[in-house]
């Protein structure tokens, strides 16, 4: 049991106890009142609600009360009583107040009026103190916990895949290089090229774009694994859905075919959304009221409805027949843009869609090839307001087909020797997918910009804090 003065506001607001001594510690959201009584709304980050502290002005030093302003941090000792005001079950009648830290109203940027999300991004080091980011960060924590719980309960092992790597899993070449070489004085070979043999790892290395390749090694030994870690993409995409550093969840399963992969992806997403509805109700209601009044309805809708499963080829037919003017063309062979994905989901089916069997030219080298010679057993899960939330596939398990594809794409067989070896010894059908953690959070919180669902976003030109 935690000592009584360690109790947090979320717990105090739920307790049945009354007329007992209580200690609360937190940051002042507002202070109002008159010359007889002051009301301080105190928040400690444990929930979106504040606790009301009632101060009998006659019992306190004026100078102390003057220093209690929005943003100040306090310890209050007092009596927990039924609240006379509406909107809260209890309040604290203050007996003593200690100021841990003041917040000068002339300089403290978070005054009580509503700030724009753009302004809050500029002061991302303070925004966790707002109701909105408190709610988002609590939901983010709950989703991370639910992800581990989901997999643990189903016999998957959490595997830590490396962050520094010499292989480009997605083959898109959008990697951040890692080096300890002096950029102003690079060692050169006799031919004048950069001499990577003198670099820390003795060869060019980068930050990983995905833990999948090593995840596959785990699946082909432990049966079912998942990774959950940071991934890095140096693509110059300034959109509300792209980050240069994001977190990805990647399950990888032996003996799973594409159908099993789809089933897992759908069940997993529904579980996470239901978990949020069950465990983050107060924060979701707050976000629903503040930013997106369709949020809770949309979450319930996704949990209650089957996802549509559709061939890429059929998807292109629907898009072409739609008569819709898209910014980008969408002929067979094109990579779908978010506008196309969202048309299928929001306008045509009005449900999440799992699109499968994409042209092999627009997908990564590791995907299992279909017999038609043109398509691969890929799947993308497309969500309302988001577009692609999951990308995955059945993996090519055949050594000859895989190594031929690696050669066709001009990739380095020498760098991928260890990956190709898994297909030489004890190869097995297997599948997996990657869920972008921040894309999931965009959906679950209803926030519109991915910069607002991660504490400290990294995007082109921005690595502050
Ligand atoms: O589709 P992607 O690139 O797939 C992979 O990386 C596979 N290796 C996954 C696997 O099969 N194990 O990325 C997977 C997901 C996307 O669907 C998207 O949700 C998210 O990662 N994602 C991003 N999220 C934020 N910012 C970016 N720049 C992202 N790029 C991908
Ligand atoms: Mg993808």
Which terms would index this structure?
465 residues, binds magnesium ion, 16 strands, eight-stranded mixed sheet, binds 4-amino-1,4-dioxobutan-2-aminium adenosine-5'-monophosphate, five-stranded mixed barrel, single chain, alpha+beta
Question: Mind sketching the topology for me?
Answer:
Elements: H1 9-14, E1 20-33, E2 37-43, E3 51-56, H2 62-66, E4 73-82, E5 90-101, H3 117-122, H4 131-153, E6 157-158, E7 164-165, E8 177-178, E9 205-207, H5 212-222, E10 224-232, E11 245-254, H6 258-279, H7 281-290, H8 295-304, E12 308-311, H9 312-321, H10 338-349, E13 353-359, E14 375-383, E15 387-394, H11 399-408, H12 417-421, E16 430-436, H13 437-445
Parallel strand pairs: 3-5, 6-10, 12-13
Antiparallel strand pairs: 1-2, 1-4, 2-3, 4-5, 7-9, 8-9, 10-11, 11-16, 13-14, 14-15, 15-16
Helix pairs in contact: 4-6, 4-7, 4-13, 6-8
The structure holds 4-amino-1,4-dioxobutan-2-aminium adenosine-5'-monophosphate and magnesium ion.
The site of magnesium ion has 3 residues, from strand 15.
């Amino acid at each position: 049991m935690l000592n009584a003065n360690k109790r947090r506001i979320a717990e105090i607001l739920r307790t049945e106890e009354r007329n007992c001594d209580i200690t609360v510690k937190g940051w002042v959201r507002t202070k109002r009142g008159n010359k007889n009584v002051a009301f301080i709304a105190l928040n400690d980050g444990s929930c979106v609600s504040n606790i009301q502290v009632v101060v009998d002005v006659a019992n306190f030093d004026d100078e102390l009360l003057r220093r209690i302003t929005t943003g100040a941090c306090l310890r209050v000792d007092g009596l927990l009583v039924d609240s006379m005001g509406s909107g809260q079950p209890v309040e604290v009648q203050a007996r003593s107040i200690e100021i841990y830290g003041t917040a000068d109203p002339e300089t403290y940027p978070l005054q009580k009026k509503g700030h724009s999300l753009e302004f809050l991004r500029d002061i991302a080091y303070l925004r966790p103190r707002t109701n909105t980011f408190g709610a988002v960060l609590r939901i983010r924590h709950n989703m991370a916990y639910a992800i581990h719980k989901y997999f643990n309960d189903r016999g998957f092992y959490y595997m830590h895949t490396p962050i520094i790597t010499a292989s480009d899993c997605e083959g898109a070449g959008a990697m951040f290089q890692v080096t300890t070489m002096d950029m102003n004085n690079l060692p050169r070979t006799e031919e004048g090229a950069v001499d990577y043999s003198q670099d820390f790892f003795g060869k060019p290395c980068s930050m990983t774009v995905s833990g999948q390749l090593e995840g596959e090694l785990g699946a082909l030994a432990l049966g079912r694994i998942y990774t959950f870690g940071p991934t890095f993409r140096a693509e110059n995409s300034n959109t509300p859905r792209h980050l240069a550093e994001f977190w990805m969840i990647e399950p990888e399963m032996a003996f799973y075919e594409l159908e099993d992969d789809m089933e897992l992806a759908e069940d997993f997403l529904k579980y996470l959304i239901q978990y949020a509805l069950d465990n983050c109700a107060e924060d979701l209601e707050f976000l629903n009221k503040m930013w997106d009044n369709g949020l809770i309805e949309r979450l319930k809708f996704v949990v209650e409805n089957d996802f549509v499963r559709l061939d890429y080829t059929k998807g292109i037919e629907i898009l072409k027949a739609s008569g819709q003017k898209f910014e980008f063309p969408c002929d067979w062979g094109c990579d779908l843009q978010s506008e196309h994905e969202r048309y299928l989901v929001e306008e045509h089916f009005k449900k999440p869609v799992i699109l499968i069997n994409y042209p092999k030219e627009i997908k990564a080298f590791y995907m299992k090839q279909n017999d038609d010679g043109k398509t691969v057993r890929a799947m993308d899960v497309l969500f309302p307001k988001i577009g692609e939330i999951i990308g995955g596939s059945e993996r090519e398990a055949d050594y000859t087909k895989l190594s031929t594809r690696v050669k066709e794409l001009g990739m380095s067989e020498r760098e991928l020797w260890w990956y190709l070896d898994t297909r030489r010894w004890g190869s097995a059908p297997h599948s997996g997918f990657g869920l972008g953690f921040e894309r999931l959070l965009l959906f679950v919180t209803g926030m519109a910009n991915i910069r607002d669902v991660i504490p400290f976003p990294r995007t082109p030109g921005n690595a502050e804090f």
